[in-house]
Amino acid sequence: MIRSTSRSALIAYDATMSIHRSLRTRGALGLSACLLAVGCAATPPPVTPAPPVATPTAPAPVTAAPPPPAAPRDPFAVPGALQKETIPSGVPASIDASKLKLPPIKGKDEKKADPDAVELPAAPKECGRWVANKGKAKGKCDTRDSAIAQLDEAMAESDAFKRDAKLAALEACTGMPAGMVRALRADLGPAECGDVLVAPVLAAKTPPSSDVHQVLLALGLGARLRRTATGEPKLAPPFDKQRVKDFIAGPMAKWVTAQAEVVEKISRKGVELSFYARGIVAVEAGMAEMRIVEVVRSAPLPDEIAKDAELKDAYFSGLEQSLDPRKVRGRDAALVGLKDLAAVGVIADGRVDRARTLLSKMFGGRRIDALDKLALPAQPSAAPAATIDQRLASKLPTFYAGLLLAPEVAKDPAVMQLLAVRGVPAPQRKVLQQASDLPRDVEMAAWRAHMTMGQRYWRAVDFDEATALAVKLRGNAPLGDESTFMLALSLATRGGPVDAAQMMLVAPALSLGLGNIAALDAIAAAQPGGPFSGLAALDAAMIQQVSPPDKLDAAFWTSLAHRYRSAAGMLTDPELKKAAEQRARSADEIAKAAPAAH
Question: What are the domain boundaries of the chain?
Answer without folding.
Answer: 1-20+236-363, 121-227, 387-448, 458-598
